[in-house]
What we know:
Helices cover 12% and strands 36% of the residues. It is mainly beta. The strands form 19 sheets. The chain has a 5-stranded mixed beta sheet. A hairpin with a 2-residue loop joins strand 7 (78-80) and strand 8. The longest helix has 21 residues, at 312-332.
Amino acid sequence: MRTPQPIIATLALILFASAxxxxxxxxxxxxxxxxxxxxxxxxxxxxxxxxxxxxxxxLIEAVEIPAVHADxxxxxxxxxxxxxxxxVTVPAVDIPAQRVPAQCVDIKPAPGGCLSAxxxxxxxxxxxxxxxxxxxxxxxxxxxxxxxxxxxxxxKAVTVSGARxxxxxxxxxxxxxxxxxxxxxxxxxxxxxxxxxxxxxxLFRGSACNSKNECVxxxxxxxxxVxxxxxxxxxxxxxTIKQYTAGKSQVFKGDDRIAYNIExxxxxxxxxxxxxxxxxxxxxxxxxxxxxxxxxxxxIQIDGHTDAKGEDALNRRLSEERxxxxxxxxxxxxxxxxxxxxxxxxxxxxxxxANTGPDGSDDPQARAKNRRVVISAQRT
Length: 380
């Protein structure tokens, strides 16, 4: 059972905005080897890519790495000193397109009075290989030309680690007039990823003729370049919840967020989820403020919380029911479009104070801090 005591649900002023070599691979030494299959390769885990991100997370756009192609070079047949030198084709080069898939900056849902945990995932630019190549030599009829070879060249994969910041919350007031300090979450930053270019110079075998004026032609295989790739840096700016002095009814405004405080006993009777008639005045003020301060279509978050008394499942259900009750009031009596309202019940999972004292005894005042409802919305 819960002791009905006043509790202030506090704001969340969340200031959130948008937000490195080559090695030799095993050469393919057969001139007639087949070129690589043309297919797009990806640097990300399998699964569908996001096109948008939940909870206000930032979408990190995919980076497309175009395919590279070089035409085959045909060396015609020749007869030298009575020996037939067969025609040879130096194969085409087909390096498939690659893709660094889209990602999301993960913004965890946070209750009012808390700055969300932020996670930027790691990113990898995949490796790329320019295959080995050889122009065959000639040794016939007095003509000698050594083979000309280039080994395979691989530029290694490049990975940049992700970054994260934990959720941080303000202390919750225990009484009117109490000063509540600000809290701060530093910027979260993932550096850019860079894979250098890969270059294979041109190959050249000169022409030659013998005394019988039998000749082998000049052969040139053009150079090929795989361009460099850059994945831009990603950042989430620092955020602050401002200090304030607790009171019965307050509204807090930031550049991009607005939040409303209402004492819990104004909204509900003990252990109930029915909005009390006496709450109409305060809720009407909030509805009017939403109409004035919040852009049309912006989501309005209602978070319900309980203390740790009773069973977990029951507390979760009660917090959800209370959040939905506020949604219902705002939709039916406050003139707010129901599609904009999002209710979340956290139950006892996000306490802001210990429910018991240092000696293990019950602490009603601390439990009162944990029972709260927060209404907040994005202003931009």
